[in-house]
């Protein structure tokens, strides 16, 4: 084994690459910030809603879109926790399903399913969970907003019923939703964790472990009820089992309130302790690419020209094997042609910092990567082709045509670009020809994105 391969194996073992999936408003942005805060990647939380005492921080993808003009799907956050490197990819949680989200899930090894305690499982959560199952991604569940009146903790059976996924709580709330007294970590049931949130949730909540006796004396029936419920769960064998989790049969469950940073540290620890590190990846034609093979990566997102001020075209690549080094020349599997990776960037929120080396699980953004397409494999050394990303049946269609026929060349170029970026599926029929392609979108949001893009380019036109 070469030094490089050994390096890739050791680095891959330290990586956890995951996404948070949720219905809009469940608290994904808030949780993202809280995770970054607990990993000390940021020093204050509060970007999302500009609350008093909170500042805008790097993790807010929506803000990033506004500030830099780059789409909400652009960012991957990287931070360190307990000796591991965590890559948190943004799975856009639009009300409407879009192919972007699917592609992100093809690039992660684990998902955190965020549920609003009051609303339970919602439409978008269901769809995203289906994609996780399809991709074989294990799912950790975080029941959020436990500081507000919600459902009973024992109502977790909805997950079992709807997803055929057995919930195995790792933390358990003391007190009902809206009256949270603390959490029990089921691995240390002889104590209760009590939280004192910082004002506005800008800092980590102070966490104090108090003994069972003290908890019983101070919380009375609330403590007794939590202990009783935990016994029921134990009797039902609803305890975390790593093998069953990785096989997609169970989901470890955590309770908390992202807004006040309650339960967030335990979730972050769970990502380190339970989420799988990058492993061998299946190849077209059988076999797998081990992480210690030379570099191979998957293009899961291409982003172009979102900012009127600069004509960027960034291809986001998930490193699957080996070490990616800036400047290396790799092969593009689709065409068998070399591709020079002179401009490699990693993206952390609004800042772009140049990447020199990246390992399995990491995300690299290649700027001005005009040749690359979503689903492409890049590799060095022995050839590799990762399976194409399955596409979804489109539900929204529109026929496009140039408003000004003298600009039909530009029109064709724009359509080709949308196709390459995967903004929509471009279908060309023999009957209509290239001048009148059918643009097909999986979700309404995708169609809206297309509409906005069109307006940005041709403000004088209301047609693509
Ligand atoms: P999203 O990215 O999933 O769409 O959710 P986001 O984080 O934007 O949060 C949606 C709303 O839920 C926000 O309130 C946010 O403050 C709130 N929220 C997030 N986590 C928690 C939590 O643990 N407890 C409670 N009580 N609320 C939470 P908003 O009304 O939309 O905005 P704002 O008035 O708070 O600024």
TrEMBL record:
SUPFAM superfamilies tied to this protein: P-loop containing nucleoside triphosphate hydrolases, Translation proteins
Superkingdom of origin organism: Bacteria
Main location, first listed in the record: cytoplasm
Name of the protein: Peptide chain release factor 3
Pfam families, per database record: EF-G_D2, GTP_EFTU, RF3_C
UniProt keywords, alphabetically: Cytoplasm, GTP-binding, Nucleotide-binding, Protein biosynthesis
Family of the protein in this entry: Belongs to the TRAFAC class translation factor GTPase superfamily. Classic translation factor GTPase family. PrfC subfamily.
The Tr-type G domain, residue ranges: 13-279
Region (Disordered), start-end ranges: 444-464
Listed NCBIfam families: prfC (TIGR00503), PRK00741.1 (NF001964), small_GTP (TIGR00231)
InterPro entries: EF-G-like_DII, G_TR_CS, P-loop_NTPase, PrfC, RF3_C, RF3_dom_3_sf, Small_GTP-bd, T_Tr_GTP-bd_dom
The organism of origin for this protein: Streptomyces lavendulocolor
Compartment(s): Cytoplasm
């Amino acid at each position: 084994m070469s030094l490089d391969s050994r390096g890739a194996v050791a680095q891959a073992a330290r990586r956890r690459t995951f996404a948070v999936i949720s219905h809009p408003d469940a608290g994904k942005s808030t949780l993202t910030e809280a995770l970054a805060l607990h990993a000390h990647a940021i020093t204050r939380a509060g970007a999302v809603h500009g609350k008093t005492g909170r500042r805008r921080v790097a993790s807010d993808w929506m803000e990033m879109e506004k500030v830099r003009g780059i789409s909400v799907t652009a960012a991957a956050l990287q931070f360190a926790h307990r000796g591991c490197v965590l890559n948190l990819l943004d799975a856009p949680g639009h009300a409407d399903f879009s192919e972007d989200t699917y592609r992100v899930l093809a690039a992660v090894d684990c998902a955190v399913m965020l549920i609003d305690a009051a609303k339970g499982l919602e439409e978008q959560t269901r769809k995203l969970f289906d994609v996780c199952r399809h991709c074989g991604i294990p799912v950790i569940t975080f029941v959020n907003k436990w500081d507000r009146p919600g459902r009973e903790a024992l109502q977790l059976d909805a997950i079992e019923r709807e997803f055929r996924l057995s919930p195995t709580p790792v933390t358990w709330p003391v007190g009902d939703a809206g009256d949270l007294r603390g959490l029990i970590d089921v691995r240390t049931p002889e104590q209760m964790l009590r939280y004192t949130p910082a004002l506005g949730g800008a800092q980590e909540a102070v966490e104090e472990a108090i003994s069972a006796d003290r908890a019983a004396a101070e919380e009375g029936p609330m403590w007794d009820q939590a202990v009783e419920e935990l016994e029921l769960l134990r009797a039902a064998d609803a305890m975390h089992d790593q093998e069953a989790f990785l096989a997609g049969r169970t989901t470890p469950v955590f309770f908390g309130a992202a807004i006040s940073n309650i339960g967030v540290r335990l979730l972050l620890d769970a990502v380190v302790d339970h989420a799988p590190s990058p492993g061998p990846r299946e190849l077209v034609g059988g076999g797998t690419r081990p992480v210690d093979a030379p570099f191979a990566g998957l293009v899961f997102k291409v982003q172009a020209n979102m900012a009127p001020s600069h004509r960027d075209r960034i291809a986001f690549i998930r490193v699957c094997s080996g070490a990616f080094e800036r400047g290396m020349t790799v092969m593009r599997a689709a065409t068998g042609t070399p591709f020079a990776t002179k401009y490699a960037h990693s993206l952390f929120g609004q800042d772009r910092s140049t990447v020199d080396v990246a390992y399995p699980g990491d995300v690299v953004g290649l700027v001005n990567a005009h040749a690359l397409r979503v689903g492409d494999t890049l590799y060095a050394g022995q050839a590799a082709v990762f399976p194409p990303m399955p596409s979804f049946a489109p539900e929204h269609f529109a026929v496009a045509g140039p408003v000004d026929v003298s600009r039909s060349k530009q029109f064709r170029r724009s359509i080709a670009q949308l196709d390459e970026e995967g903004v929509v599926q471009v279908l060309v029929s023999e009957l209509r020809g290239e001048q009148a392609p059918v643009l097909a979108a999986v979700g309404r949001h995708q169609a809206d994105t297309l509409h906005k893009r069109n307006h940005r380019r041709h403000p004088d036109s209301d047609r693509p």
